[in-house]
Each structure stands twice: as C-alpha cells, then as structure tokens.
Amino acid sequence: MIAVGLGFTNKATADDIVTAIDATLAAYRMKRKDVDVISTAVFKRGSQSFLDAATRINLQPRYYSRQALSQYNDRLQIQSEHSLTSTGIACVCEAAALSATGKNGVLLGPRRVHGLVTCAVAEAKR
User: Fold this and answer.
1) What is the mean pLDDT of the chain?
2) Alpha-carbon torsion 2, 38, 44, 20, what sign?
C-alpha cells in the first residue's frame, strides 16, 4: 500500500496540491494509479482545496489527529522546528504518510516542497 501525505498552507489551491503530488510521485517513478490513499492532519479537514484535489485524483482523503501524527515524530526524516512549535508534529506530510501506512510503513524519502505544499510518500512493508 502506497500513501501520500500532505501539508499545505491555507492559500494552496487544488491545482497546487495535485501538482505537488504528481511531481513527488514522478521523483519516485510512480504515477497516481500507484497511490492507495492521500492523507493529512485533521486540522486541515475544512480545506476545500484538499477535497477537490482528492476528487481529481479519485482518492478518498484520510485525516489523522495531532496525537496520531505526533507518534511518528521520531521516525520522520525532516524535523521542522516551525512545524513542531506550531502543530506539535515535526513534519505533517511525512507523519500523515506514515500514519496511513501503519506500523510497518516506511518513508520513500524526505518530504518534498512544492511552493505552498509539502508532500511525502510512504509504503507499507509486510
């Protein structure tokens, strides 16, 4: 199972999010069809841009609580002091990708920044 985790500002559009997903997947020689889920923090639940992006790539979005995401802080490749101070999560997109893949999830690499969007990919290992 492949999960894409996202972090984004309130100014990010659906186009920004889809572009970030496509660029990140391309870096791993993957395509949208390879992805099983997109995820982010529950505090982004009200984002119409995220919902629109999920609809455009035909995936149901998943949301994870701060508590669920912060459990992965020690497994993240990026440790953002800004993110940690403002959200309690060292890297929202990486934590969201790992949350979606579960205990055996592994990040394919550090988050990638695309303008107003950060994106990470994780794979569930058996």
Assistant:
1) 93
2) positive
> What single string gives the DSSP state of each residue in 30-89?
--GGG--EEEEEGGGTT-HHHHHHHHHTT--EEEE-HHHHHTTGGG-S---HHHHHHHS-
Nearest in space to 113 (alpha carbons), one of 3, 2, 7? 7
Q: Which of 88, 71, 77 minimizes the C-alpha distance to 118? A: 77
| Range 60-76 average pLDDT | 92
Residue 44 near residue 63 (C-beta atoms within 8 A): yes
CA angle at 109 for the pair 47 and 99, rounded to the nearest 5°: 50
Supply the pTM of this predicted model: 0.93
Backbone φ, ψ for residue 45 (5° rounding): -55, -35
- pLDDT tens across 28-46, in order? 999 999 999 999 999 999 9
pLDDT confidence of residue 88:
76
